[in-house]
Design brief:
The chain is an alpha/beta fold. It folds into two domains: 7-44 and 124-184 and 309-390, FAD/NAD(P)-binding domain; 75-116 and 187-301, D-Amino Acid Oxidase, Chain A, domain 2 (2-Layer Sandwich). It is 28% helix and 22% strand. The protein is globular.
């Protein structure tokens, strides 16, 4: 008997690795292909807030024992919602921050649950290291008589797989090819910076999830927006850094070359210059930054109209940011991505049990039908919150995108 062809997974982000974990648990062969040289190639240290649905999806994939290990690694913060701080006066505000509505944050056991992206990836990949092929940048794919192969930028090709799942993020070549350019990711013009500092820098805040908005001192009516999570259990641990995420309305956070490569001291200096006039209660977050961990980023979003339609292919589908990129507003992106992994992994496993691994009849169609519903809702919610928080607006006809598609000749 011949061995069954593996499921090919492009990209080693959260959705891809959780899907790989699901397939591994069902004893379904797979291979993951990632452009980076290793899991620590790029800074991935900022924290993600996990919703109740996100945690449920992860738990369904990992199973009781592995999920408990994952949950133990998560940070838990008390408080049901954001506490607002005026960054100019240092005052803790009552009610809602100007221009920003409050939202519930607690997801399990009455706690706000979060974990760094890097730690999530390591936990999802644990024990699967021999199935990840690093330094493979994807150019596209080709279908064969009985399967599919990935094509890499150096001209080489993967072994033949039975299915391909594209999960390389917002610039996914698999997504461009599969959707014939229908999936568009818009550059909102808003920019952000991730930063970290020792726990001592956060002692003036106390425990909680804090939101700071400076909308009175920035040029041209712009604003700077910052969120940070201070966990009581880690407050006195000198080996832990807390992180913060800063966003700015279009034109406020400016970088020399406006790309993703700005990390370290140059990114840190941008954050420090924007907050140099802030109150001494919050200044330590920037004055004591671990500058090497700072990173500049662009705020992007898929069309707020939702996940588009494309001709279904029983051998190829998409997960995570490759199919539904979101702004950081509301923390929807990662939680929607892990829902993709849980759903698709379950459908693949059910087909595997039926003995349908040669054709995967109906798997991608059923997955995409269900995914479009919840992902469209999540993208719309994320974009709607970003309009209020960052002052952005997408021009669906002429707005700049970061994944322009050029059809093959």
């Amino acid at each position: 008997m011949t061995s069954p062809k593996p499921v090919l997974i492009s990209g080693a982000g959260l959705a891809s690795l959780l899907l790989a974990r699901s397939l591994h648990r069902s004893k379904i062969p797979f291979l993951v292909f990632e452009r980076d040289a290793s899991i620590i190639f790029r800074a991935q240290g900022y924290r993600l807030r996990l919703s109740a649905q996100g945690l449920d999806a992860i738990e369904s994939v990992l199973g009781p024992t592995s999920f408990q290990k994952f949950y133990d690694a998560c940070g838990k913060t008390g408080g049901a919602g954001f506490a607002a701080i005026n960054p100019l006066t240092g005052e803790t505000l009552g009610g809602e921050t100007p221009s920003v509505k409050s939202e519930p944050l607690a997801s399990r056991d009455g706690k706000v649950v979060g974990i760094s992206r890097g730690d999530m990836r390591k936990l999802f990949m644990e024990g699967l290291e021999d199935k990840v092929r690093w330094s493979h940048q994807i150019k596209g794919y080709e279908e064969t008589a009985n399967g599919v192969r990935l094509v890499f930028v150096d001209g080489s090709k993967s072994e033949e797989g039975s299915m391909l799942v594209g999960g390389e993020g917002v610039k996914s070549e698999v997504a461009r090819q599969l959707s014939n350019g229908a999936i568009k990711v818009y550059d909102l013009g808003s920019r952000g910076i991730h930063g970290q500092a020792p726990t001592t820098a956060f002692k003036g805040l106390g425990e909680g999830v804090f939101r700071l908005v400076d909308e009175t001192t920035q040029p041209n009516g712009g604003k700077v927006f910052l969120i940070t999570n201070v966990r009581a259990d880690d407050m006195n641990n000198p080996d832990v850094n807390f992180g913060w995420t800063m966003g700015g309305s279009p034109g406020v956070i400016k970088a020399p070359n406006d790309n993703y490569t700005i990390t370290g001291p140059p990114a840190a200096q941008i954050a420090k210059s924007l907050t140099s006039h802030w109150h001494e209660r919050v200044k330590p977050l920037f004055d004591n930054m671990v500058e090497s961990e700072a990173a500049f980023w662009k705020i992007t979003c898929s069309s707020p109209n939702g996940v588009p339609e494309w001709a279904n292919d029983p051998r190829v589908t998409l997960v995570g940011d490759a199919v539904h990129a979101m702004t950081p507003a509301g923390g929807n992106g990662a939680n929607t991505a892990v829902r993709d992994s849980a759903l698709l992994g379950r459908l693949i496993a059910e087909a595997w049990e039926r003995g349908d691994a040669d054709h995967w009849t109906g798997v991608t169609e059923a997955y995409e039908k269900e995914m479009r519903v919840y992902a469209t809702e999540a993208v719309k919610a994320s974009y709607g919150q970003a309009v209020g928080q960052f002052g952005v607006k997408i021009d669906l006809e002429n707005g700049p995108t970061i994944n322009e598609y050029v059809a093959p000749n």
